[in-house]
# Entry
Amino acid sequence: MPRMTINDRPVEFDLDPQMPLLYALREAANLTGTKSCGGGDCVGACMVIVDGTALRSCRITLAEAEGRLITTIEGLSRDRSHPMQQAMVAEQAIQCGYCTPGIVIAGAALLDRNSAPTRAEIEDALQNLCRCGVYPRLVRAVQRAGRVIQRRESISAAPAPGIEAADAAQRVPALRAVPEPSDSGD
Ligand code: FES
# Structure
């Protein structure tokens, strides 16, 4: 059974190792912030960070995710305070919102490597489709988040979502938390 770390939590999936990570996240782990394109061409709404790189979770199997560190949109911050989340709100870059989780993940992964990316670097990192066409705002949001990371600017945090990812996954039998070493009873 594939084991990996999702949002800092070691987990084991009792699922077919060939299942795409996307479906395990959404249907077994209740991490529905990662969006599915619904069987059409992938538009990047399913992006998660895998060992520091933003990847499309519909194209990774659970077997391929074995042993890796996964961060979903829920794990980026507990209170929507990640600079990329703050900047998306501040720049009004969220319209219908469908592309938003993938954009935030792609931007966060880029800024983690380079907090002052050029416009070309941002456009290269944001290959996601935004069907509302707010690309200029998306680019500005990444630039602004970079300034926040560099402490050249601050933005008030958006309201907290009021739910913990761990709580959402509590009653899902296909997902089990692997006990921490300190929980082993010594
Ligand atoms: Fe609607 Fe980007 S905000 S798809």
